């Protein structure tokens, strides 16, 4: 059963994303504090921050009493005050059970934002997109979602570009976290995932493909991605979304909610028996997103159903039939829609 956040909290969230929408760059460290050092009898002012790895970084602002230093310090303090106010508001949202990503995930997504990839067509998918969509729809989580994966989708023929001397791996390393390429099952194929050393955090690159799950090049990122069946249906229609982290609100692009729901049904049928728990999670997320979207705008769901490729009908029908087990307590229209989808096969 869906529970909605009170209007006051939805207003607070709307205010935060309005602030986030104006960001050109997101700092990948703590808000910072002032620090002083004396060198050869001269006092210097520094600004001290900590990266996601916990590594300290000191930026020298200048000689302590110099007018230019005081101007820089005032700007740093102003930025820090705003960042701490945002963090305090996010704390309120987290307690109220808005979807909030862990700090390392949020900063990794922020590094991708800073590189301009969402502006160039990249789409955040998976559970982080689920959380962003729920926040936008005003849905309160029964419990915060848990995921170790950051899934980034793109079209293989779109050359998402970053500077020639950098790769996607360099971009996510800007967080200060030790990311490494993850070898695939076939050692002859290039890696399509990156994992933080000593952690379960992983970044996966995904593009439209077939059930052969082929590896495709993304030259503009100096990287490779895994081709997924029916993935073009998911990312062909996307919208603005926001990932909420411990201290940051990160603008991203996410799939349209109705397509997200129907694609989750499809994905649940593509997983092997060994991934039964993930298939159940797919169907649960599909039902929640379908119900939330129907409650907001039924036309969005109708348009998403009309856009389904005919070759996906059988999979959608199979999944919808099973998903009815998760629909108890949801809107009657959600149950009716699932039954209608189950008849497609």
Describe this structure in words.
The chain is an alpha+beta fold. Helix content is 42%, strand content 22%. The chain is built from eleven helices and 14 strands. The strands form four sheets. Strands 5, 7, 8, 9, 10, 11 and 12 form a seven-stranded mixed sheet that branches. Strand 13 and strand 14 form a beta hairpin. The longest helix has 29 residues. The protein is globular and about 80 Å long. The two termini are 27 Å apart.
SSE layout and pairing:
Layout: E1 3-4, H1 7-21, E2 33-39, E3 42-50, E4 56-63, H2 67-95, H3 103-114, E5 123-125, H4 127-137, E6 139-140, E7 149-153, H5 168-173, E8 179-182, E9 193-196, E10 202-209, E11 215-218, E12 223-229, H6 231-235, E13 238-244, E14 249-255, H7 257-270, H8 276-296, H9 298-306, H10 313-323, H11 332-342
Parallel strand pairs: 7-10, 10-12
Antiparallel strand pairs: 1-6, 2-3, 3-4, 5-7, 8-9, 9-10, 11-12, 13-14
Helix pairs in contact: 1-2, 4-8, 7-8, 7-9, 7-10, 8-9, 8-10, 10-11
């Amino acid at each position: 059963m869906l529970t909605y956040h009170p209007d006051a909290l939805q207003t607070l969230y709307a205010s935060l994303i309005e602030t986030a929408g104006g960001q050109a760059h997101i700092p990948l460290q703590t808000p910072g504090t002032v620090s002083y050092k004396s060198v050869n009898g001269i006092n210097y002012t520094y600004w001290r921050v900590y990266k996601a790895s916990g590594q300290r970084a000191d930026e020298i602002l200048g000689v302590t009493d110099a007018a230019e230093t005081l101007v820089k310090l005032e700007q740093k303090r102003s930025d820090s005050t705003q960042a701490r106010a945002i963090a305090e508001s996010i704390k309120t949202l987290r307690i109220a059970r808005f979807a909030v990503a862990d700090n390392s995930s949020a900063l990794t997504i922020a590094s991708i934002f800073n590189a301009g990839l969402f502006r160039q067509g990249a789409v955040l998918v998976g559970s982080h997109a689920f959380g962003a969509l729920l926040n936008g729809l005003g849905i309160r989580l029964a419990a915060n979602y848990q995921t170790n994966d950051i899934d980034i989708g793109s079209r293989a023929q779109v050359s998402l570009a970053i500077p020639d001397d950098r790769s996607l791996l360099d971009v996510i390393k800007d967080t200060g976290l030790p990311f490494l390429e993850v070898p695939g099952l076939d050692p002859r194929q290039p890696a399509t995932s990156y994992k933080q050393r000593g952690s379960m955090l992983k970044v996966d690159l995904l593009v439209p493909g077939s059930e052969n799950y082929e590896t495709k090049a993304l030259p503009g990122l100096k990287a490779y991605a895994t081709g997924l069946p029916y993935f073009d249906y998911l990312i062909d229609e996307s919208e603005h979304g926001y990932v909420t982290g411990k201290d940051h609100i990160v603008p991203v692009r996410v799939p349209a909610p109705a397509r997200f729901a129907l694609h989750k049904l499809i994905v649940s049928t593509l997983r092997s028996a060994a991934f039964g728990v993930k298939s159940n999670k797919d169907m649960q997320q599909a039902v929640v997103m379908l119900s939330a979207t129907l409650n907001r705008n039924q036309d969005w769901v109708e348009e998403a159903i009309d856009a389904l490729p005919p070759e996906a009908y059988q999979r959608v029908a199979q999944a919808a039939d099973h998903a009815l087990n998760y629909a108890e307590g949801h809107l009657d229209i959600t149950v009716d829609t699932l039954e209608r989808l189950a008849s497609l096969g």
